[in-house]
């Protein structure tokens, strides 16, 4: 991290330039998102309106370092209802993408990244089910494009993200 | 004969053969050919989008390229796959700048996203290719008196601007297709709300509280079962009831059934062929009610 303090506009610009984050500055804090959110209904650990507000205030460390951004269930209810057409669920992806680049990676996401790189899929096939498929008369699974996906992950720099357990680890 | 490239995704072949079996058998019976493509990968759903959104778009585009090369439209079962692929397909058809960037990466694989094909969900194939009339006529075992709580999952409907599946606040397609089988689609509280599935593994307590709410609401509405389309919703609500029992000391015994299983049963496919043992919450009550019994 740079030593100097960032101003709020720095962080806002950074988010707007990240894929998914473009619409964040349209927010006028009406709270439609929070009242539509199934997660906010269950826990006070998450409130989408607050995440957006803190981000717009330039609270970079606060936003990226907390577990709040990882509590969005990506259900898109907020985004669907936002009167300002803030793409809230996509803004959350942008915030997560920025956090990941700085090595702030929840364990489960490190596992997703490792499985994707290794198998080209997020859920590994089991020997048990491969056998069962034949018993059930299901066609054998066609081979997964593991090499293709590895090439993509390498071309985009995904495989060099600071995620432990993945090839190209830099933490 | 109508043909589609079947995009199975990761979870269904690896964990839910009952979904794959019922989906394949029903489409075969209804005269739609499903083609398995070689070289497909993960669709790059929310877990991958959370890590890097641009990578996920490229992975989705790569998979669409495979269908373009085979000159087939894609059909998905999993609503997560539907969202990843349909969003990518529609964004990349419209956004030239992004498409150029994506194709820059795909060119190392000798691929190019052309935007010539459609990504459809299984329900759209039933509705548009098979047709409601033909579907109704094909039902040999109407699911009479069965009260079904329809739960499409979030990513069949939202983000509606890019998915264009149905009205996101008042959807009717899924209910209509349930009713075409002779069952009743019952209204229940918070019907369109998330199951919490994507929080499993990160915040299990919150995920389970959301899943519990879903099941309680369906039970209050007097539903005989919840019909799902997404393998994560299925897992969250089916296995979820085992966890609800141990965590909340509550037992709902609410069968969770993929729509394709209801469809197969109504088309007269033998329940013994459907790997129904993969349900944690047994569905015998449902089979009894529609006059089918497992041996």
**Structural class of the helix and strand makeup of chain A?**
mainly alpha
* CATH topology (fold) name of the largest domain in chain B: Rossmann fold
Number of helices, where a helix is a run of at least 4 consecutive DSSP H or I residues of chain A: 10
Return Rg of chain B in Å. Answer: 19 Å
Number of strands of chain B: 8
Give the termini separation of chain B: 35 Å
Total beta strand runs of chain A? 0
Rg calc of chain A: 19 Å
Which spans of chain B have pLDDT < 50 for at least 5 consecutive residues? none
SSE layout:
The complex is a heterodimer of chains A (171) and B (295).
Chain A: H1 8-16, H2 32-36, H3 38-42, H4 48-56, H5 60-65, H6 77-81, H7 88-101, H8 107-119, H9 127-136, H10 146-155
Helix pairs in contact in A: 8-10
Chain B: E1 2-7, H1 11-15, H2 17-29, E2 32-36, H3 46-51, H4 53-69, E3 74-76, H5 79-94, H6 96-106, E4 119-121, H7 122-130, H8 132-138, E5 147-151, H9 154-157, H10 160-163, H11 173-179, E6 184-185, H12 204-220, E7 225-228, H13 231-248, E8 256-258, H14 259-266, H15 284-289
Parallel strand pairs in B: 1-2, 1-3, 3-4, 5-6, 5-7, 7-8
Helix pairs in contact in B: 2-14, 4-5, 4-6, 5-6, 7-8, 12-13
Report what the structure shows.
The complex is a heterodimer of chains A (171) and B (295). Chain A has 171 residues and is mainly α. Chain A has two domains: 3-101, Alpha-helical ferredoxin (Fumarate Reductase Iron-sulfur Protein, Chain B, domain 2), CATH 1.10.1060.10; 107-160, no CATH class. Chain A has helices at residues 8-16, 32-36, 38-42, 48-56, 60-65, 77-81, 88-101, 107-119, 127-136, 146-155. Chain A starts with 7 loop residues before the first helix and ends in a 16-residue tail after the last helix. By secondary structure, chain B is α/β, with parallel strands linked by helices. Chain B folds into two domains: 2-122, Glutathione S-transferase Yfyf (Class Pi), Chain A, domain 2; 132-289, Rossmann fold (3-Layer(aba) Sandwich). Chain B contains 15 helices and eight strands. In chain B, the strands form two sheets. In chain B, strands 2-1-3-4 form a four-stranded parallel sheet, with helices on both faces. A four-stranded parallel sheet of chain B has the order 6-5-7-8, with helices on both faces. In chain B, β7, α13 and β8 (256-258) form a beta-alpha-beta unit. In chain B, α2 crosses α14, α4 (53-69) crosses α5 (79-94) and α12 packs across α13. The longest helix of chain B is centred in the C-terminal third of the chain and has 18 residues, at 231-248. The mean pLDDT of chain B is 97. The interface between A and B is large, with 64 and 61 residues.
């Amino acid at each position: 991290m740079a030593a100097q303090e960032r101003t709020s506009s720095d962080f806002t610009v950074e988010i707007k330039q990240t894929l998914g984050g473009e619409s964040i500055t349209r927010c006028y804090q009406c709270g439609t998102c929070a009242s539509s959110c199934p997660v906010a209904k269950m826990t006070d650990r998450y409130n989408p309106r607050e995440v957006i507000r803190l981000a717009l205030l330039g609270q970079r460390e606060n936003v990226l370092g907390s577990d709040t951004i990882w509590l969005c269930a990506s259900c898109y209810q907020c985004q669907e209802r936002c009167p300002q057409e803030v793409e809230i669920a996509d803004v959350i992806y942008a915030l997560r993408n920025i956090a990941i680049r700085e090595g702030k990676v929840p364990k489960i996401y490190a596992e997703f990244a490792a499985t994707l790189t290794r198998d080209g899929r997020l859920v590994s096939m089991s020997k048990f089910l491969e056998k069962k498929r034949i018993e059930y008369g299901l066609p054998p699974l066609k081979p997964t494009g593991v090499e293709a996906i590895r090439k993509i992950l390498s071309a985009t720099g995904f495989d060099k993200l600071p995620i432990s357990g993945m090839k190209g680890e830099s933490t | 004969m109508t043909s589609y490239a079947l995009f199975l995704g990761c979870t269904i072949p690896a964990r839910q053969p009952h979904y794959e079996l019922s989906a394949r058998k029903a489409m075969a019976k209804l005269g739609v050919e499903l083609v398995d493509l070689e070289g497909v990968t993960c669709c790059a759903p929310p877990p991958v989008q959370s890590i890097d959104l641009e990578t996920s778009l490229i992975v989705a585009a790569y998979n669409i390229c495979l269908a373009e090369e085979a000159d087939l439209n894609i059909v998905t079962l999993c609503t997560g796959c539907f969202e990843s692929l349909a969003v990518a397909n529609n964004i990349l058809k419209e956004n030239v700048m992004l498409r150029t960037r994506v194709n820059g990466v795909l060119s190392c694989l000798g691929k190019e996203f052309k935007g010539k094909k459609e990504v459809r969900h299984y329900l759209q194939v039933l509705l548009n290719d098979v047709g409601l009339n033909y579907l109704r006529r094909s039902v040999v075992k109407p699911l009479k008196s069965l009260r079904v709580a329809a739960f499409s999952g979030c990513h069949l409907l939202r983000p509606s601007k890019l998915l264009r599946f149905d009205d996101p606040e008042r959807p009717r397609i899924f209910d209509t297709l349930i009713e075409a089988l002779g069952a009743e689609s019952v209204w229940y509280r918070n019907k369109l709300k998330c199951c919490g599935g994507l929080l499993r593994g990160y915040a299990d307590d919150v995920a389970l509280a959301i899943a519990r709410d879903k099941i309680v609401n369906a039970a209050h509405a007097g539903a005989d079962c919840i019909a799902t389309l997404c393998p994560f919703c299925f897992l969250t609500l089916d296995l979820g009831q085992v966890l609800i029992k141990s965590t909340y000391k509550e037992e709902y015994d609410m069968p969770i059934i993929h729509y394709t299983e209801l469809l197969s049963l109504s088309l007269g496919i033998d329940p013994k062929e459907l790997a129904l043992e993969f349900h944690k919450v047994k569905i015998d009550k449902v089979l009894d009610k529609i006059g089918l019994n497992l041996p």
